[in-house]
Amino acid sequence: MAEPSKTPSPAAPAGLGRRLAVELIGTFWLVFAGCGTAVLSARFDDVGAGLLGVAVAFGLALLTAAYAFGHISGGHFNPAVTVALWLGRRTRAADVVPYVLVQVVAALAAAAVLLVVAEGRAGYSLDRDGLATNGYGTHSPGGYALGAALLAEAVLTAVFALVILGATDLRAPRGTGPLAIGLTLTVIHLVSIPVTNTSVNPARSTGPALVAGGAALSQLWLFWVAPLIGAVVAGIGYRYVSGGTGTVEAAAEAQDVDDRPS
């Protein structure tokens, strides 16, 4: 009689309801922390967080959410990431629409809460002070044109998604994925805040745009189209660049040190 295998069985993936719940929490935290830093503290007298502080806030928010929830849902918190992971064969096709819907709802809730907090300061004006919305042309922080904004968002999203796919690969060092992913988002913000106020995340753009309205809403299309182009490039391209099939879901592999192939 063969001796039973001593290799532990992988834990069953969490149910869809639990995965959506943590995607809701994580996306809310990412949008509220990042946009909140930009709206509430970036320009606070002479001790505001500034551009660097906003970049670090987005990176740390994603890092903490990924460590807290990555092992449950895969830690997407971003429709473009969900699409890239689906194309990279890390996420079920049936999960894509529910994930994206929950991410958008979470971002909208975060933007609404942020507006209530911001309006607690006398003199705050949504029209004048904004809600950390994304934009191009006259609504770009640095006055960058549509073409530059589209190219920057597509390229940076592709790089971001490639890092996520690589950091969560079974061949990657265990437990370091969220750190690499959070640092990458920080660098992305340092590069592109002057260009578009940095999206690389359609949900992050949609929440503030729906609350703020106006030009932010009319320009929102770009912050879906460009990140999704980057997501498609990364999701399809990673399998060829890495030489891996990518058949294991991120949610099932993240943080699991016992199931690494020998």
Note down, in words, how this protein is organized.
The structure is a single chain. With 262 residues, this protein is mainly alpha-helical. The chain is built from 11 helices and no strands. Helix 1 runs antiparallel to helix 2, helix 1 runs parallel beside helix 4 and helix 3 packs antiparallel against helix 4. The chain is globular and about 55 Å long.
**Helix count from the secondary structure assignment:** 11
* DSSP E strands, number: 0
Note the gap between the termini: 24 Å
Strand content: under 5%
> Spans of 5+ residues with little confidence (pLDDT < 50)?
1-10, 245-262
Question: Overall mean pLDDT score?
Answer: 88
Task: Kindly provide the radius of gyration, computed on alpha-carbon positions and rounded to a whole number of angstroms.
Answer: 19 Å
Outline, from the CA principal axes? globular
Oligomer: single chain
Amount of helix: 55-70%
Q: Mind summarizing the main beta sheet?
A: none
Task: List the helices and strands in order.
Answer: HHHHHHHHHHH
Content-based structural category? mainly alpha
What is the structure about, briefly put?
The chain has 262 residues and is mainly alpha-helical.
Topology:
Elements: H1 16-41, H2 50-73, H3 79-87, H4 93-118, H5 126-129, H6 146-167, H7 177-196, H8 202-212, H9 215-218, H10 222-242, H11 250-253
